[in-house]
Amino acid sequence: MKPAAFTYHRAHDVADAVGLLTDLAAAGEDPKIIAGGQSLMPMMTFRLSRPSALVDLGPLRRVPSMTAIDHDGHTLALGALVTHRAVETAKLPEGFAVLARAMRWVGHLPIRSRGTVAGSLVHGDATAEWCLLALLLDAVVVAEGPGGRREIPADQLFHGFYATAVDPDEVVVEVRFTRPAPHAALTEFARRHGDFAIVDAAVALDLDGSDVTGGRVVLGGVAPAPIRVPEAEAVLAAGGDARDDALVGAVADAAAAAIDPPDDPQTTATYRRRLTRTLVADACRQAAGTLQEPQP
Amino acid sequence: MNDPHLLSLTVNGAEHEVVVEPRRTLADVLRHDLRLTGTHVGCEHGVCGACTVLVDGAPTRACLVFAVQAEGADVRTVESLARDGELSDLQRAFGDHHALQCGFCTPGFLMLAEGVLAEQPDASREDIREALSANLCRCTGYQTIVDAVHATACSRRETERSGARPVDWESCS
User: Fold this and answer.
1) What pLDDT is attached to residue B161?
2) A207, A284 in Cβ contact below 8 A?
3) Which of A42, A57, A151, A206 could connect to A214 by a Cys-Cys bridge, CB 3.0–4.6 Å?
4) Is the domain defined by A7-57 classed in CATH 1.10.3720.10?
5) Is A194 on the interface with B (CB under 8 A)?
6) Which CATH number fits domain A68-177: 3.30.830.10, 3.30.465.10, 3.30.420.40, 3.100.10.10?
């Protein structure tokens, strides 16, 4: 299908984009930002989304900070127009290498070449890899609005069902990942390669040698928004050997027991729970290095 | 509310100016305004890859780009592959390997492969499979498409090594 009609506005810098969003809204329009457009355009062609105006951030690719990938020794900062593909092919420090490895799960190559990290986060799909990674690595989204810039931590970002804390008159300028995770992995299951995941799981282990001292367990596809699973993280915090199958099984069982996944005829709650158990166990083993990640 | 925009872009080396409504996709501008109907349109929501073209060298689904976003871009379509009526090595490899039957998906696969081989000339067979998984084909079962692209990659590498003397894919393993 073809998208509904809209007016088109090119932003030339961030302030210009914020100004356009504010002015269009004041004129009774329903403006939306387009960057890579790889999530927005399918929604518009299905007419699930019908913004009356689009503000294009495309020209901001000329602003170096918008496509920069910077590491200051502790935090990894991605400009808002950094693409999935740019992360996939970047040489990232060990603590953030999981980001590059996880990119193979994001759509397909042409989608990754255009789609942006910030766009995926603001879109807020509950199974989007970036949403899980944001919770795993304590991302902070820097958004600029009419009142200036503010920082939104990942744990306050997702309101569920494609809603996020970024306001309609705000433009994301940067995403910072503040928690390095050298022992981390993301894995998922979809019926076809490159499709949206039914369930995806990301695990980061805090390791002292092979001793687990804590960690994170993040799930997508089991709730309206991506979630951390404190019950499973408690098992990691209680400690054990990362190579121990009993520990991995206990983490996976705790995650599967803690969730209340959606139930529909095609994908039952029972099935999602079983997927969760399998995927959390796989992610734990991949994070510990006892299971090889699937090669692209 | 049709809000016409003047759009300038380069397609297959030629500069074009078109007046477009913002909701017109790049795929529709190529086909309807520029009459380059080699780019096929399948699903119109980014799943099938039939409309794949190169935008500034990167394989892109032309149905997932509004034409107005391609202002100033350098676009290549399947019409750019053949020179003076001679099919390119990649196109010949598709024919030789039976990598097409009905041909509907072929322009998309060709442009996807063209972009991938330019970026990753050393792509392994597995790399090629992974990249080609972006597009759908309902006839071939994909193996022959992978064969064709792999053979092209191989013959291009051999040609590079031998110093300009074209090496046919048949002598590649």
Assistant:
1) 84
2) no
3) A206
4) no
5) yes
6) 3.30.465.10
Residues 89-148 of A with CB under 8 A from B: 104, 108-111, 113-114
ipTM (interface predicted TM): 0.93
Residue B121 lies in a domain: yes
Position of tokens 């005829």?
A: A265
List of chain B residues whose C-beta atoms are within 8 Å of the C-beta of residue A114: 58, 60, 64-65
User: Could you tell me the end-to-end alpha-carbon distance of chain B, in angstroms, rounded to an integer?
Assistant: 57
Chain B residues within an 8 Å CB radius of A85 = 58
Residue B171 banded pLDDT, cuts 50, 70, 90: low
pLDDT tens track for A231-248: 999 999 999 999 999 999
**B5: enclosing H helix or E strand:** strand B5-11
The domain boundary, picked from B80, B114, B143, lies at B80
Question: Which one-letter DSSP state was computed for residue B83?
Answer: B
Residues of the domain holding B70: 5-80
Residue of B150, B147, B88 lying closest to B117 (CA atoms): B150
- Whether the predicted pLDDT of B163 surpasses 60: yes
pLDDT given for residue A294 in this prediction: 78
**pLDDT over 90 at A296, yes or no:** no
3-state SS, chain A, equals CCCCCCEEEECCCHHHHHHHHHHHHHCCCCEEEECCCCCHHHHHHCCCCCCCEEEECHHHHHCHHHHCEEECCCCEEEECCCEHHHHHHCCCCHHHHHHHHHHHHCCCHHHHHHCEHHHHHHHCCCCCHHHHHHHHCCEEEEEEECCEEEEEEHHHCEEECCEECCCCCCEEEEEEECCCCCCEEEEEECCCCCCCCCEEEEEEEEEECCEEEEEEEEEECCCCCCEECHHHHHHHHCCEECCCHHHHHHHHHHHHHHCCCCCCCCCCHHHHHHHHHHHHHHHHHHHHCCCCCCCC
Contact status, residue A193 vs residue A296, Cβ threshold 8 Å: no
